[in-house]
Amino acid sequence: MAAPVATARLAPGGKQLIEGYKSLVTQANDTNIEFYEKSSTPPSLDNGDEIDFTTQHNTQFRTKAPRGYYESTPLIDVGPVTMTAGYDPIIYDSCKTALGKPTTITYEWGDNSTLAFYGYLKSMEPEETSEGEDPTATVTYIATCWDHVNKVEASYVYVGVVGT
Q1: Nearest to 33 by CA among 73, 93, 115, 84
Q2: N or C: which end of the chain has fewer CB within 10 A?
Q3: DSSP secondary structure string, 70-138?
Q4: DSSP letter assigned to residue 47
Q5: What is the C-alpha separation between 142 and 81, in angstroms, rounded?
Q6: Domains defined along the chain, listed by start
């Protein structure tokens, strides 16, 4: 049985984002929807829970494997985009038209790099309003990774800027 061998960490390629300002979210079916981004969370990438293949023959450790163990490319879950946004009350009419409608969602970081993917506006949840406070809403976009026109699975598209 071969033991694992330590590997040296190398300097990462690209460049680190220094600040989150200004990250914007665009939905292709309503590019000027009445949301005013205050903060946002870009989509996550997740391989899913591990597969526990421990048996009664194990004597010291639980053994686990990643999902897609036998595949060259595992299935990836692209997580939601969430944001806190100011809003114009007309957003109720805009959401009535946009909620649940397949479109392209674009997440743009402050350095102008973008991640575009197929998805839809899932929800707009206003927070409590009170005197002296800026009314905000929590907005959630779901990544479907499904080209609704051509009816096929579709990856996200990342476009970087010079230096990334």
Answers
A1: 93
A2: N
A3: TSSS---EE--EEEEEEE-TTHHHHHHHHBT--EEEEEE-TTS-EEEEEEEEEEEEEPPP-TTS--EEE
A4: -
A5: 7
A6: 24-47+59-159 (2.40.30)
